[in-house]
Automatic annotation (TrEMBL):
Domain of life: Bacteria
Protein name: DNA alkylation repair protein
Gene3D superfamilies listed in its UniProt record: ARM repeat domains (1.25.40.290)
Recorded name of the encoding gene: yhaZ
Length: 362
């Protein structure tokens, strides 16, 4: 399986060198490649490769920071997507002393890739000044720049440098999120939802207060809070369940619960079936949970959503699911007794054990 770090390969580095030479004929391709492809290149992970490429560009170019930006402005449109992250990364590493030029560059480069990681050192260096800048970006006509205001300021941005002040006090982000709560762009609204979901992990009351203020005012805001509530819903937070109309599960029954086999091989699938019956009309949130055996032998619960829907009085709904037990970069499976549970409106209604086995010989 290809790894994300492999987007930075020989073909990419050759294309980058060629493009740099187009706008700067004296660019030393061989010197650049030597800096990049040191003996440890194959072992470098994604962010380490980004760091290596940007520092190698810096070592190869003999320009001032502002002159280098002019060159990178010309190259960036040719490298859209994740590969283009090297350009805002250059700003993050070498632009701290040129704040105004760096802000313009981050806004420019994010249109072609993303500057969400590159803003983090600036947040760490001067939080108040950078949040003011991001508030301004939240009013920008370009959706990529508006998204940067929200995504770059997430308290728990994956792969992003930690900004402890935002984790400890995410209320500083609320003016930005308020500006974007009914944004026309789904791309932006999804980022706002991710930001609020981050907040809910450490400051659930702050998130719930925001939900109550936004709920029912605008369909775009409603979409945001629905997606921002995923962690609190999985935690069966009573206020959040009630806000979305998920009543008590006392009058809801789960029956016909079966698994295809009580043994699942690593690399195989767990298939299961069940039926939901309700004695009353209500909103219905159906999930299943698996208590995975960890390497230590302890268990770790993971919850998966099946559906959010409405069920009528005396109605029956039937569900079937297949859960993969193939090893992935994000999850390694171990042998032992696991537990499968069916959860309705935040309440576990049925469960059974099954064994995960390893058919491969050591």
């Amino acid at each position: 399986m290809a790894k994300v770090k492999d987007i930075f390969n020989t073909v990419f580095l050759t294309e980058l060198s060629t493009k740099l030479q187009t706008y700067y004929p004296n660019f030393d391709h061989d010197k650049f490649q030597t800096f990049v492809f040191q003996n440890d290149w194959d072992s470098l992970e994604f962010k380490q490769r980004v760091h290596r490429i940007t520092t190698s560009m810096h070592r190869t170019l003999s320009f001032t920071y502002k002159e280098t930006l002019s060159l990178l402005y010309k190259c960036a449109p040719e490298f859209e997507g994740l590969q283009g992250i090297i350009f805002p990364e250059y700003v993050a590493k070498y632009g701290q002393e040129n704040w105004d030029e760096s802000m313009e560059a981050l806004a420019y480069f994010t249109r072609y890739s993303t500057s969400e990681f590159a803003v983090r050192p600036f947040l760490q260096a001067d939080l108040e000044k950078m949040l003011t800048q991001m508030f301004t970006w939240s009013e920008h006509p370009n959706e990529h720049i508006r998204r940067l205001a929200s995504e770059g300021s997430r308290p728990r941005l994956p792969w992003g440098n930690t900004v402890l002040a935002l984790k400890n006090d995410p209320s500083q982000l609320l003016p930005i999120l308020e500006n974007l709560k009914a944004d026309e762009s789904l791309y932006v609204r999804r980022s706002v939802a991710n930001n609020l979901n981050d907040i809910s992990r450490t400051h659930p009351d702050m998130m719930i207060e925001r939900m109550k203020e936004w709920h029912g005012k605008n369909e775009k805001s409603d979409w945001i809070i629905q997606h921002a509530s995923r962690t609190l819903l999985k935690q069966a937070h009573p206020e959040v369940l009630a806000l979305f109309g998920y009543q008590s599960a006392d009058l809801i029954k789960v029956g016909q619960f079966n698994i295809a086999s009580n043994q699942v091989a690593i690399g195989g699938d767990l298939t299961f079936y069940f039926e939901v019956f309700s004695k009353t009309t209500t909103n219905l949130r159906v999930e299943y949970a698996i208590d995975y055996v960890k390497k230590s032998g302890k268990r770790n619960k993971k919850i998966f959503k099946i559906t959010s829907t409405k069920i009528e009085e005396n109605e029956r709904k039937t569900y079937s699911r297949k859960q993969s037990f193939r090893n992935m970069t994000t999850r390694t499976h171990y042998t032992g007794v696991h537990v499968l549970s069916i959860i309705v409106n935040g309440i576990k209604k049925a469960s059974c054990e099954f064994e995960v086995i390893n058919l491969e010989k050591e």
